[in-house]
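Let us practice reading a record.
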Amino acid sequence: MNIEVAKGTLDSNTFVASEVNLVILFDAGARVSDVKKIIGKRSVSAIFLTHEHFDHITYIADYIQEFDCPIYCHSVIIDDLRLGDFQNNILKPINIPKNFENFVPITSEKEITVGLFRIKPFFCTGHSIGSIVFLMHGHLFTGDVLFAMGIGRTDFIRFGERLMLDTLEKLQDIEFEIAHHGHGKSTTYKEQKRNIRLHLG
């Protein structure tokens, strides 16, 4: 499996995971043109959104138009887009999708299969209401829950700090090889175990 990065709004990471002609994306903060530079003529089979903050879903309407594939995400993202009102949308306007037929709400932590890929979602509230961390074949896509040397902000939602502690307790029990974050560089399992323990105290 190959993992590449397209940089997006506020230097966010949109990850392109591929195996030969099978391609899936994590987040939608990078321009379609930058994603297409990576995928070439291949099609995108699915998109997974880690959370509802604008720098990770900026171009979701463009992705729908260009890739026309299922978009797996927390239901709060769908609800907020329908209302045109979502958290942290203060610096850059988002084009609201014209329809929501592509969206598939994630309602449980049941594994999702896309071709040869098996993706396990984990609800990880704390940085945002709709944060989901995805585990795929040893790769953990954390959105803004974890970073290389820290964790995501918890002041966006009520009781965010307490909820983040619950999330960190959950994440420390998940085994993986490498973690890919919403911003910055990726980290190893060993580095993240140390990072999580530091913030749990």
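A brief commentary: Residues 124 and 167 are 5 Å apart (CA to CA).
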